[in-house]
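Hey, can you fold this one?
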Amino acid sequence: MFGKAFKIGTILGFKIEVSFTFLIILGALSLFSGVTRGLLYGFIIMTSVIPHELGHAVVARRLGIEILGIELHILGGAAKMARMPRTARHEILIALAGPAVSFVLGAAGLGLGFGLGWKPLLYFGIWNLILGTFNLLPALPMDGGRVLRAALSARLGRYRATHVAATVAQVFAILFVVVAIFAKMPMLALLALLLWFMAGQERRMAHLWRYEDEAPPTEVVDQYGQIISQHEGQGAVYTIPNEPGVAPPGVRTHAQGGDGRVPVKRVIRLPNGMVMVVEEYRW
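Sure. Predicted structure:
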């Protein structure tokens, strides 16, 4: 997700990876707080983000979604899902699982920290409360942004809801920049830049993967856009209704001076609710 990452272990069957961008956080903490405190804060961040992402991953797995791994990066972390949730309810459940874990850990950290008088536990509790609260901001791809998209999808459809949630995220990014300038917080400005970029990435992904509620009919078209096969349904097998070696009308064959290959695009309605366009050549 954020370039090269290396595996540091496995928890509950999930591969845990650390992106090299995560080292930027450790470097910044060490620069402003000293090496010892920087490493302590880095450890607290890591032991807070991993349970947060495990919350997402465990719920997603229970809902039948494969998790490719958990990656720690400069924005915190991400549970990498093999596919999108099938329903808005599933997306909300997965999104809220992470902050729920953070709030539980935050309450436990504060309680034990005050009870034992140990500052690292207080820092752990405070950071988890900040992590849970910050992730509930309605800014895609953060958890609150995913909840917003799911809530809007019933009225707008997932495709348009993604665009709205991404726009809201970029508004937050602009606000973060303003605050960073007046409060002299360069890390917040960096976060704003990354949030703007990732919101735009979500919008581009929405263009690549159109959702079922706004998808065109399942069809096979030639290079001129003419439908040569159509089938309603999900997960079907598509074939061109022509004899072997015979191209659809208007397509050049080998005898007509071409190489005999027929370029077609398959618009496939997938069982997981999305549509994929595959461009290929057939003889």
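The chain has three domains: 1-136, 142-210, 219-282. Let me know if you want another pass with a different chain boundary.
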